[in-house]
Description:
23% strand, 15 strands, three-stranded antiparallel sheet, alpha/beta, Rossmann fold
Amino acid sequence: MFAEERQQKIAELVAGSGRVTVNLLAERFSITTETVRRDLATLETAGTVRRVHGGAVAADRFSTIEESITDRTVQRPGQKMRIADAALALIPPAKSGSILLDGGSTTEALADLLSRRTAAAPSGSVAAPELVVITNAVPIAARLASTPGIALQLLGGRVRGLTQAAVGQATVDAAHRMRPDIAFIGTNGIHADFGLSTPDPEEAAVKAAFVHSARRIVVLADSSKLDAETLVQFASLKDLDTLITDSEPSAELTAALTEAGVDVVIV
């Protein structure tokens, strides 16, 4: 295979998966790691990929890039709905309790499923306990505000237009005063070394408060977030209990998750 043809195939792999490793490419094309690095250098010069430690990512995958919640909601809807459905199974349908829903498109899908399940449940006693749902996300609050059987608590703060989620010290302080049973957390990246990350420092501070407040941490992350690093870390893998995703993580990330004792659910 000519170098140009191989480099084109490497570019296609990066475009399809978002990230490739040097070792994977060396094995796939039966070439040395030195040859892989030369190919990646050529592709980076051409603006096709961006080299990172141990491999390469898509050229547009920068640590500060953050799409709006409106744009993210229409991306990978099937994968996100499967992840949300698996997350819903972790919320007992016939028991009271408390959960926290972080802002994000996948947690918003979970809120939609939870609302439909709760509304469809047979009505019981007037004094029956409700499920307490805590969130800092305006779209999630709007979806659950009128749902029977749910006691909604909306955390205050400055609402970021990009994510439509409350951030700031008031939000962080409110999170620290609570101890929900389960926190369902979204992330922009989950990486073997860097852990969970998001581009915005204020969002990261709120997410970190959520992680340290809840009894159980469940991360909802579609495969585009796997092996990704963004600007600000808000949790390590050891802080997590469960990861729900739609694709098998890379060997490196799988090993790190196993070492951290994280239960991985693939839907």
